[in-house]
Design a protein that fits this description.
- The protein is of the alpha+beta class and 91 residues long.
- The chain has a two-stranded antiparallel sheet with strand order 1-2.
- A hairpin with a 2-residue loop joins β1 and β2.
- It is globular.
């Protein structure tokens, strides 16, 4: 039943920790390799580095919602939204 998911390469969900500067503060993020890869793809499409993309996203969420409660979760949902949008646009 779960063959597609159970056969995923463990490297794709290996957690990688990276540090970046967001609003002048160094922040450490622990995300799965596949999430980092998607963030790189999104950032490249926006002609930004991953750090610039994350910082811009963080600032825009602050402006719209007043706070970012869970940045790692926001980034995962950003990647899912990106994939869903690309799936719809191809269909």
């Amino acid at each position: 039943m779960c063959e597609l998911y159970a056969s995923a390469n463990p490297a794709s969900y290996e957690v990688i920790r990276r540090s970046m500067r967001i609003q002048g503060a160094v922040t450490s993020l622990a995300l799965e390799r596949q999430i980092w890869d998607l963030l790189q793809e999104i950032a490249t499409a926006e002609q930004l580095s991953v750090a610039e993309f994350v910082s811009t996203l963080y600032q825009e969420v602050l402006e719209r919602q007043g706070e970012v409660k869970n940045l790692a979760s926001l980034l995962r949902i950003t990647c899912l939204t990106y994939l869903a949008d690309h799936t719809r646009s191809r269909g």
